[in-house]
Amino acid sequence: MSTKSIHFPILTLTEKSSALTADVNKNAVFTAPGLDKKVGHSIADALQARLQGLNELQLILKHAHWNVVGPNFIAVHEMLDSQVDEVRDFVDEIAERIATLGVAPNGLSGNLVANRQTPEYPLGRASAQDHLRIIDQFYSHNIESHRVVLAHYGEFDPISEDLLVAQTRALEKLQWFLRAHLDKGDGNI
């Protein structure tokens, strides 16, 4: 019995990049019913920026989860892991809304790096308090950025508005959990 080998063509780096770019940037000729295509695609572009920010946030949270140490290790380690899961769900919701609006969501690593919104996370192995102080700033960035998109596009698309309002509410709650660890008992962090 003879066996056949299957040949997989090897693409050069340039070929790989152009093949991915062509597929990722292809938008549909439609948007959600009741929206003008141009408006729908514009909203999707704004949501793509939020997809970017949330992808960054969930990666930062997971990194901190792996690298937190100190007396509050287990509490913070477990809290961050559940926050990663919740933010990942937000990423999926945003990506699905972008697709519904007729635009291809882009969550590829190259896009994530090329369109980075935040500075490199500065900590590796560090205390829970140090990680939480930095993560607090990344939460603030994402909450403020959600609010900007809401302010500009909320009136045009109540569905996207509802999604962002719910996520903003949840992000604020996650930040509150984090800030409770930073509060010195006098309301200051």
UniProtKB/TrEMBL annotation:
This protein's record includes keyword Coiled coil: no
Alphabetized PROSITE patterns for the sequence: DPS_1 (PS00818), DPS_2 (PS00819)
Alphabetized GO MF terms: DNA binding; ferric iron binding; oxidoreductase activity, acting on metal ions
Family matches, as Pfam families: Ferritin
Domain Ferritin/DPS residue range list: 45-185
Listed InterPro entries: DPS_DNA-bd, DPS_DNA-bd_CS, Ferritin-like, Ferritin-like_SF, Ferritin_DPS_dom
Keyword DNA-binding included in the entry's annotation: yes
Keywords, ordered alphabetically: DNA-binding
Recorded family membership: Belongs to the Dps family.
Protein name listed in UniProt: Starvation-inducible DNA-binding protein
Higher taxonomy: Bacteria, Pseudomonadati, Pseudomonadota, Gammaproteobacteria, Pasteurellales
